[in-house]
Amino acid sequence: MPDNKNLLAAAIAAALATLVTGCVSNAAKSGGGESSAPVAAAQGAAPAPTTAAPVNSSGISVPVTAVNPEDLLDYNKTIVVPTAYVKFVVDGKVGVSKQGSALSTIGGGSANSVKASAKYHLSGFDKALAQSIAKKAYDDFVGQLRAAGYTVLTYNDIKGRDYMQGIALAKTDAKWGLPVESPVGSSDTLLVAAPSDEQQIKIGFTGPFSEFISLGKPKIKDATILIPTYTIVAPQIWGETGATYSTISAGIQTAPGMNLQAAAVTWMGKPKTRMMRGIPGVATKAPVLNITTNAGTLSKTDTTSNAANALSKGLSLLSGAGSITSNSADYTFTVNPAAYTSGAMKGISAFNAEVARVAREAK
């Protein structure tokens, strides 16, 4: 049943797009009316494709995996990119702990525990900045695919078609004016930005394609649909622990840099019957660290409870049990808009170049 398999791939892609971000704080260690195929030329909306090598001028290496790139050749290499999503971590929490073993008490060691935690949030980051980066990411993606020899239809090219009428938009958060996500197993809040309010298309059960499927079949019948997603993390905050023969430690480390935590583009073309070997598309293999080393300024407020630590120490002396020492802090990351945008686009454009390379080499 080709249509069902195509839907299954889209549903799996949805899960990947949602879960690929993982616990981004801990991972942020230093170290995005139907017509026939000729409609694009007839409408005059999409420029004719040119042929040129994909551009990655950032010098950043972005290892990717690609599955079923041959799908891009459907419909005479015509693709449609209705939107793109860039996810930004805007606040979160990271924690780490270390406990001494019972054997460590021999010879004067400690069976105590140490904990460290930090909360952080962004300052100077808003909807306008988020959407401007998403627009740059979208335009860069479209441009690189056109340079790879594809006819690319954009939102403006298809917005008047029947299947775009009444399309559902995502629910927005009152504070940000954009949708937010909280990944499972994470304390982070991710802001999800599209290039414009009109392109903030709802992501449903079947993922980013949910609004482009009807009765188990793609609504778009003259092009392969692609939707890229990128996740940006700044600042970089992570926990570290250590131990020697007689001491243990736990602490929070920070840096004002930025990571491309994940990037993926999934696609849905003509329904096919085949053995699935993954989700059709291109995805990063791992976080890309330090796409910039300075995207803003970090400031710290110590929130450690000295009274709680003293109480734990006192109870330890009375009972003979180990004590628990905790330290905590709140961090504010004040975004430098130009540096933040430049860093994000270095990582995003480097990923887009890899997608364009895969598309160019598709057979």
UniProtKB/TrEMBL annotation:
Organism: Fluviicoccus keumensis
Protein name per Swiss-Prot or TrEMBL: Uncharacterized protein
Signal peptide (UniProt feature, chain positions): 1-27
Key words of the record: Signal
Entry keyword Signal: yes
Domain of life: Bacteria
